Amino acid sequence: MDVLLQRFLHRFFRDSPEYEARKRQSQFSPPVISIKDVHAAVPRHLFEKSTFKSLFYVGRHLSLTLAFYIFATRIDSLSGSLCKVFDFHGISSSTMQFVLWALYWFWQSVSFAGIWTLGHECGHDALSPYPVVNAILGIGLHSFVLTPYFAWRITHRTHHKGTNHLERDETYIPPTRVDFKLPAAEVATKMNYKDMIEETPAFTLFKMVIRQFLGFQLYLIHNRKGNPKYPKWTSHYKPSSKLFKSEDRSLIIISDISIATMLVLLGVWINRTSFSNVWRLYFIPWVWAHNWIVTFTYLQHSDPTVPYYRNREWTFTRGALATVDRPIFGWVGRFFWHGIAHDHIAHHFFVSIPFYNLPEVTKAIKPVLGDNYYYDSTPTIYALWRSFTQCTFVEPEGEVVFFKNQQGKALREFLGTVQDSGSSASEDAE
């Protein structure tokens, strides 16, 4: 038993070889890579978008979502039949019901998160060469999972224009030493860190659960974990919000109307059936889907080995490279989430390339990026816990900084660099 437990822990709670290699490269110098070289490595046919092919993927995904729903509507009758057919001694029909509902909630939540990723693709005009097709699909897909399409599209594009820029990025902005009211690094003691930021594992887990399941909606509602440059209670649902330009207001209103329409439809569904029915069929997988969405978006950028930049050292290329490709949940992430975590670096360089071409793009650009291509096969749950507990704060000064943990220690440090003026912008930044 002890041997089996050790094997289990070693398999699922370990740092990957790629992560260990980055840890050994403790002295960091920002990459100097030409955006032209990256673009030149990608065959031109991979930039082509097919409406028909994209609609096939959307249709396939929605068909699976519908199939899961149909399965769920038959769980109550199916559970009794399974107990009789397979003669499960000691297992009651109610126990079987719970098992089947748990299976439904898991797979439907995975599917809901996939619907969100397809809406994300529409937000980059990556599914069709026709903007109106992307807009119609995006509004429908994102509204179904209660995400304001145009509002989120606008701020997400801003994120791509300033990835891991401490002043310009839109979300997952790290707190600084000052935010925790810590003394300066040269005078801070172990007791300072223990008193001000060290947490018990139980409290860390509680915070993590809140962030995973509610964090995305709280970000949309009042900019939780968003850029602190915005006023308090900045919202994606407010047309006059500082997140948007004045010419965006009509689009924000359309997003709000779409969300209101979805809420009305859910209300009608509840009225015609019951709240418990809609809770089981829609809201539980919807809440659980947020856990997956936060997992892959958080792990794409939050890692102890990934740098954050301030004005002088940031370039578009460096921001794009301050991301991590992860094979999150293997084939599940590739099939249901359309590789959003598997090929995220390629996506940051080429946001308008459809997801089904990004695996080939990743292969094409890896030789150009070399050691600056960050890949991490660390098991997902452990990687999530590692980042949540080790990515605590950054220093308030310095052009290139890394996360420090609850003991005030960072895995890597900035060596200094020569400016790379040739990679400050990209034609694919949006």
UniProtKB/TrEMBL annotation:
GO biological process: lipid metabolic process
Keyword Cell inner membrane: no
Keywords assigned: Membrane, Transmembrane, Transmembrane helix
Highest taxon above the source species: Eukaryota
Entries under InterPro entries matching the protein: FA_desaturase_dom (IPR005804), Fatty_acid_desaturase (IPR012171)
Membrane found in the keyword field: yes
GO molecular function, one term: oxidoreductase activity
Coiled coil: none
Annotated transmembrane regions: 98-118, 130-152, 251-270
Annotated ranges, domain Fatty acid desaturase: 101-374
UniProt name for this protein: Delta(12) fatty acid desaturase
Organism: Grifola frondosa
Record lineage: Eukaryota, Fungi, Dikarya, Basidiomycota, Agaricomycotina
Gene: FAD12_0
